[in-house]
Amino acid sequence: MSSYHASSLPLDLLRNVLSRLPTISLLKLRSVCREWRDVIDDPHFAATHATCDFESPRILPLPGPSRSAERWFEVDDEFLGARASCNGLLCFDDLCDGTIYLLNPLTGEIVSLPSCIDPSRERRHPHRIGIGVDRLSGRYKIVRLSCSVDRTVRPTRARVLDQGSRSWRDIASVPPGLLLGGPVFAAGSIHWEAAGEGGLIRISSFDIAKEEFAWTPRPELRDAHLVDLRGALGLVDRSRQERVDVWAMEEGRQWVKRYSVRLNSPWPVDSHWFLTVLGCGGRKIVLKYLENLLLYDPAADKLECVQRSGDAPAGQASSITVSLLSPAKLWNADKVLP
Fold first, then answer.
1. Nearest Cα to Cα of residue 228 among 321, 118, 114
2. Taking the CB of the first residue and of the last residue of the chain, which one, N or C, has fewer CB atoms within 10 A?
């Protein structure tokens, strides 16, 4: 019987086979041989795999920015939470000096990117940060919005950092409304909730390719928040006591109601103010109520608690799909932490 050699596979066939495997499996297969590692670590392969992967998200509790790896994060087996995220990358900034950090929590690779603030003038001023990828060019961009200091979060200046660049540049477009909550990247744009008339939620979207802000059509909802539905933009309606409706924006910017989560016993929700949808894990929906994590199965119409108060991650949370993208290779930067 002839022996098998990894290098005997044609390169195109090897890429095709590896592209069909889950991210966690690829992480282990990197150690098989140099050829496999080179294919898996190739930025184009990793980026393509990140946009096609359908694994469940995971949770990442983040108490706040820190320069220590141990204090930055702890990876759980289910979901991830982050300040801003895109294709498995988490983006943070240092509140003291404005340094941007880009992290892949699966591989533990983290790099520092240039600050875009003057510490003597903008330190601790309100701001918003987002990360996304141009669907045409495949290149990543980070946008940072400087905001007014009159107790509102109204952006006054917008700057962009291109993939691989070491310098920020100003752009003319600035969102016109009062931004609320964290960003969600979907359909080629970074989206923020914005205050509308009569308490209605509006959606302010930054088109990565055009580098312009514009309003995105949405259902007329008041008590709602944005969420990433495995690559699609979602909107969670919390206005009803007995259920939570999850809307999704489809092609042509049309909104459809995709899920209705019934909030029945044994996990009744007394105040929707403390209820958020973190995202979709496989075919299930993950919610956070106070410090409890709830899992809803639409097929069985069943809601169960998967993590109780005291064990749940602190702070804000959102969902993200794991990937093998290398922050250092994307930005041609040195690793900050192993």
1. 321
2. N
